[in-house]
Structures are given as structure tokens and as C-alpha cells.
Amino acid sequence: MNYQQIPELQSLLSAVEKKYGRPVLTTNDFNTLSAIIRFEGREVLSPSTLKRLWGYVSHKTTPRKATLDVLARFAGYKDFSDYRMSLLGEQNDTSAFLDTYYIAAEDIVDGGLLTIGWEPNRVVRLRKVESNWFEVLENRNSKLREGDRFQCPCFFKGLPLVIPTVSRGSQILPSYIAGKTMGLNLVELES
What is the distance between the alpha carbons of residues 44 and 37, in angstroms, rounded to a whole number? Predict the structure, then answer.
């Protein structure tokens, strides 16, 4: 079984972050979370194990069930199986109305500037070219590059940004997702 065969893993990590009270992003966060798990549950998960689970370092191994059980208990469940069962009730509710901040492309004038960001420390400044088309003006730590262009009808804070195709010069790149785990944390129109 690999990470792709554990679809609930990202959801479980989010539940752990909710209990922790903030996103787990830095070495200090992993050290602190490890200590809290040890203190509260009398169970041990090393900071290096946590870093692998969160993708902070390369992870080529599949987490053991015992590791998933410890995380699930920390998040308030009996074990990982109990956590999975709790999700079954949520699966019946496959749609919802969103009550989140967003900026629609149609509300931005041509030439208007927009800044988006996501963890860890990714910030991209965009200029609306026309219609739903945007060009990357500045990039900090993302895989997008200055001059890249893409279409996007709307930017939702708290949700991932999915871009079907990115135009880089004469190249058409495959789909790109920004804020895959925690969504965009910055969506700001410049005045």
C-alpha cells in the first residue's frame, strides 16, 4: 500500500493540525507536535516520521497502521479505522454551498493586479491580461514562472487553485494545482 492508496491521509493530517491549532509547517512545528503527542497520549511519533507524513522531507515509505492509529487518537478517534468510519457519514454529503472569500476574474479590470499565496511560503503576483487570462508577474517559491499564462475564472481563499493548463512561451504545460493541501491562504486584489 502506498500513499495514493490511503486517500484519508491528507484529511487525517488536517484533523491533526486542527487539534494542534495551526498548520504544521516548520521544523519547530514537527518537534512541538511530537512532544504534544507524547505528553497527551503517552505515545511516540518522532519529528522525522511526522516530517515524512507531511511531505516536509522525501517519503518513499508507507506509514504503518500503528503510526496512523497514533495520529487518529491524537485527533480524537479510537484508531485509524474509527477515523475512516467517521468519514463515511461525511461522504454522503458530497456537495455544499461555499461561504468563503473569493475574487472572480470578471470583477478584475484588464491590467488589474492580484496576489495569491499558499503554504509553504508561496506567493505569486498576477496581472489580468483579458477575460479569464492571467500572467505571472512575480513568483516566490512556486513552480510557476514569470511570464506564464493561464485561465482562471475565480480564486477562492481556503481552497486549492486548479489550473487546467499553463502556457509557458510556446509550451503548453500540464495541469497545475496550487495549495493542494490547505488551499490558497492569500487572495488579494491590488488597488
Answer: 7
One-letter amino acid at 114 equals L
Cα dihedral across residues 18, 93, 8, 157: positive or negative:
negative
CA–CA dist 95, 175 (Å, integer): 23
pTM of the model: 0.53
**In degrees rounded to 5, what are phi and psi of residue 79?**
-170, -175
CA gap 41, 77 in Å, rounded? 12
The one-letter amino acid code at 175 reads S
Residue 26 burial (CB count, 10 A) = 11
Domain spans of the chain, in order of start: 3-91, 102-189
* Cβ contacts of 78 within 8 Å, gap of 6 or more: 72
Q: How far apart are CA 165 and CA 169, in angstroms?
A: 13
Render pLDDT for 37-90 as a digit per residue (tens, 0 to 9): 999 888 899 999 999 888 888 766 778 889 999 999 999 999 988 888 887 665
**CA 187/CA 40 separation, integer angstroms:** 36
168-191 in b/e form (b: 16+ CB < 10 A) is eeeeeeeebebbebbbbebbeeee
**Among 49, 14, 58, residue whose Cα is nearest residue 183:** 14
